[in-house]
Amino acid sequence: MRKKIVAGNWKMNTTLAEGIKLAEEVDSMVEKNPSKTIVIVAPPFIHLAEVSKLLTKVFLSAQNCAYESRGAFTGEISVEMIKSTGAKYVIIGHSERRTYFHEDNMTLLKKTKLAIDTDLIPIFCCGEKLSERESRVHFDTVKKQLDETVFTFDKTQFSKLVIAYEPVWAIGTGVNATPEQAQEMHKFIRDLIKKKYDTQTAEDTTILYGGSCKPSNALDLFKNPDVDGGLIGGASLNASDFMAIVQSVP
Ligand code: PEP
Asked: Is 80 a catalytic residue?
């Protein structure tokens, strides 16, 4: 079933003490303002086990996972390790991972498969660069990102994940996609899912928008029929801003 979700990606921010404080603030705000929206925080790896202990209403996500399940991969964190902290979600394919850590579609496919097999819900990111939008190949880019990864899954596997459309030019830039641009791409993705699987699967898939989403633009983005919530970077580091975004979900 399609769900409304707002997830906060803290990226490489917050010390452990700061992360615990932020998680406590968010959790207590969600407790005081109950809604049907699923609220998720994605702190840095080393916070997961501690933050997991204090969350009561908010779900926990990792920001990444290893592409192998165990063994001699110094510094990597496996899906089993993530799962053992109590996390339920994992962000895969964020554009910062694709750009700075050269993660390609094959790697992302391996990670996503491992996550699903471990009963973690992948939040799978896709999105075009500015040059791709300017040369009007943004639909082709997103289709290729999905074709080479999550669209290789059967319907049962696919139905276990969440998609996040994050235009790279909007991430951390202060320039969000317009509500029309977001809706257009979300509908395009949903139509691809319909063609690849079926109408029910397309209707049931949660597709989040990410890219400079803040309290002032969240409602306009979220009220679109194919936008099911957001993946929030910068604004998730302030509990009040993050909650204002959560409360913008219609
Ligand atoms: C993100 O990193 O997923 C993101 C959407 O960042 P920001 O909200 O800061 O643009």
From this structure: no
CB of 225 closer than 8 Å to CB of 183: yes
Dist. CA 221–CA 174, nearest whole Å: 14
172 pocket-lining for ligand 1 (C-beta < 6 Å): yes
> Active-site residue among 47, 94, 138, 186?
94
Beta carbons of 27 and 2 less than 8 angstroms apart: no
Look up 94 and say whether it is catalytic: yes
81 ligand 1 Cβ < 6 A: no
- Please write the tens of the pLDDT for every residue from 52-64: 999 999 999 999 9
Tell me the pTM. Answer: 0.98
Residue nearest to atom 3 of ligand 1 (CA): 233
Rounded to an integer, what distance in angstroms lies between the CA atom of residue 219 and that of residue 241? 13
Buried (b) or exposed (e) across 74-89, using 16+ Cβ within 10 A? Answer: eeebbbebbbebebbb
The per-residue pLDDT for range 174-197, each reduced to its tens digit, is: 999 999 999 999 999 999 999 999
Instruction: Single out the residue of 109, 59, 56 nearest to residue 87, CA to CA.
Output: 59
